[in-house]
Amino acid sequence: MSDLVTKSASDLSGLLNSGEVSAVELTQAHYERIDALDVKVHAFLHLDTEGALAQASKVDKARANGEKLSPLAGIPLALKDVIVQEGVPTTCGSKILEGWRPPYDATITSRLKAAGVVILGKTNCDEFAMGSSTENSAYGPTHNPWDLSRIPGGSGGGSSAALAAFFSPLAIGTDTGGSIRQPAAVTGTVGVKPTYGGVSRYGLVAFSSSLDQAGPCARTVLDAALLHEVIAGHDPMDATSINAPVPDVVAAAKMRDVKGMRIGVVKELGGEGYQAGVRQRFEESVALLEELGAEVVEVSCPHFEYALPAYYLIAPSEASSNLARFDAMRFGLRVGDDKGLSAEEVMNLTRDAGFGPEVKRRIILGTYALSSGYYDAYYGSAQKVRTLIMRDFAAAYEKVDVLVSPTSPTTAFKIGEKANDPIAMYLNDIATIPVNLAGNGGMSLPCGLAPEDGLPVGFQIISPAMKDDLMYRVGGALEAALNEKWGGSMLNQIPSLESALIQGGVA
Ligand code: GLN
């Protein structure tokens, strides 16, 4: 494989600046790898080769003209297929949007383009970002590059797999209950859910509007910070966008110093139900932070126990309303339009054919929870629980600067293992969901391989709203200490995909 594809975005930025490599060459190197290996991984739903090469050559010309460029100009990126890009198909992993080409760019997309980032293509995901394994995609699952018979996490499994397979050094994910952090955890990559409102949702196809947040995915904490800087900041097109300066996450990622920081281990997010190797690697990392001079205490957040049921009322309720726009009249699929049927019949046939089982389950659940007579008992109660969870966070932050936990209770499970058991699937997000309910920032970074299965374990850092720099500071310091301990990045230990290809891997 070309050495170029294994490098971090920040290293590649240096090579581009010094003229050792051009953006076009870099883009081609990544496409070569994708062409050879994505048949096994299925990280991408669509490749925009022409658009990407045009952007790369534009950046090369601008550099040759001596124009001042952003640090990420010319760096390739994989975009989760729930974010719109003008003229490029956006499916949200659903049949109902098959063939739809958006007429505009999301704010994230236009900011990436303005920074000279090269968007390689759109990545696979669970349908409308509902899931934890990418098995709910209507276009077939994505395979984890660590072991092709396992899930790459979800819903953003295409983005995490693209990073771990060295198809792209950067990716964008979205996180409603954990879909950036859990895929990062199970693929040994870095994923950040910024503070709610920190990154614009304009052009992000809505699943649960009060929880959805797009964020950066990468292979290093610094790369995530560089991408964060490009996409974050106020946007008048999103009413929930925060109009305040973005914390200096890049400086924080480079600090590598946690002396005197107070770090809280959340008692409720660990212990029973968490895989032994996940607990072990987590505890070792906590000890490492202590060695680096942080003050570690245990904190209790008693209402986190109710986060999962509250989420599975709030998220489906908002989804049932958001997904009403897929009515066969405005976007994508239309079934039964043979002039003999009413608009309502066409709508029914289209939704029946276009939505998969998990999306239907959630629309039905949400519609029920919002219906008169049940609204107070279900949706209203869930909102009260949400307030209690926010208060738990507020009380914890009186004692500590950031909170930590394992990102996910287990390492990557086998494709198919939990597909028929929604509750087992929902439990994957037990440690990530409280963060979305409170709108805090959350990061997952790799903290070692579980001894029992040799698969990556994720370490979660949670920071108070609008203090995203704190999680980057802790993440940057921990990553450096872990690299020293393990002799380099965890991804150096990934079994080679080329050999999986030779052995036939898993279809
Ligand atoms: N796995 C969770 C769900 O299925 C979270 C999804 C997400 O963050 N988009 O809803």
UniProtKB/TrEMBL annotation:
GO CC annotations, alphabetized: glutamyl-tRNA(Gln) amidotransferase complex; mitochondrion
PROSITE patterns: AMIDASES
GO molecular function: ATP binding; glutaminyl-tRNA synthase (glutamine-hydrolyzing) activity; transferase activity
Keyword Transferase: yes
Coiled-coil parts of chain: none
Domain Amidase, first and last residues per copy: 25-469
Enzyme kind, highest EC tier: ligase
InterPro entries cross-referenced by the UniProt entry: Amidase, Amidase_CS, Amidase_dom, AS_sf, GatA
Presence of the UniProt keyword Hydrolase in the record: no
Keyword field: ATP-binding, Ligase, Nucleotide-binding, Protein biosynthesis, Transferase
GO biological process terms held by the UniProt record: translation
EC number annotated for this UniProt entry: 6.3.5.7
Catalytic activity reported: L-glutamyl-tRNA(Gln) + L-glutamine + ATP + H2O = L-glutaminyl-tRNA(Gln) + L-glutamate + ADP + phosphate + H(+)
Entries under PANTHER family matching the protein: GLUTAMYL-TRNA(GLN) AMIDOTRANSFERASE SUBUNIT A, TRANSAMIDASE
Family membership: Belongs to the amidase family. GatA subfamily.
Protein name as it appears in the record: glutaminyl-tRNA synthase (glutamine-hydrolyzing)
